[in-house]
Amino acid sequence: MHPSVVAFHGSEAVPAFNECGGYHDVKPADFFRYLKTMGTITSGEKYFGAIHLYYGDKAYDATIAENGLFSAVIRDPIRRINSLYWDYAQRHLGGNITDRKINIFNALEGLPADDLACPPISEVHCIQYAYERTNDSAVGVKSAVDPLRQFLYRSKQNIKGMLTPTPPPNDQSPRAIARLLAQEFSHLAGEIVAYDLDCWRVCKKTRSMIQMEEMVASREYFQQTVWPNVAPHLECNDTYLDRVMASGKTNVHALEERASIDIYNKWSPGFQKAFQEIIDVLGRNEVSEMYQNFGYKLPH
Question: Can you name the residues that pair with 20 across neighbouring β-strands?
Fold first, then answer.
């Protein structure tokens, strides 16, 4: 951490925001004003921020209104989806990410294949956060929320004319677990690609997208690309860079040598199909252009 920066984890350090439901209910502009006020209290000696807060370009308008810099981190989508999904699957299969690991591939192979197939993705719908459901046109509130926020998937009718049901939360049967895991894969994969595209659309002109693999591995990239897009007003000296580059296991998984195509090939056919449908729904040409710009090759 930079000595002049204080970073919150989401809005957890802000009791008033948590009481009203957290950042889902707080406009980015309001949260930014709060952070600026805290900086003022320290007479400008500290700069305040937060991680895991507003996804996609939700904070873009408020950032520009404050004469700030908007940038976003992008990562190989196959690796990112794989990482987040396996963490989710661990919890639902009885494991965790610290001391009890479940072999996800073996566990999935033991579930009913028909129920593990992801529901076909034919339409994409957005779910508005609380602060986006108002008619307020103030900075930080999108007047028209584009369909790249969060997904609801409509299952196409099967041969019996029935829609694929969503399992109830208390149903722990293998069929229910398989359906839940399949739906969650579709949700995570779709959300990741959509948020990347969301940011790409507002960052590509200023070239302010930050590549995660380079950020955690290259001192030169961190100094010349990351820092100017994040905090150009703060010093990024050799002492700070030494500490950043020596931070050990910071996202070491981003540097894994296994090729993305090898990871993709281990996904079930249903997961692969869902991923391809998501790209088609969001626009294959634009999604491909975005990822190719960072050297990520999408499997077909």
Answer: none
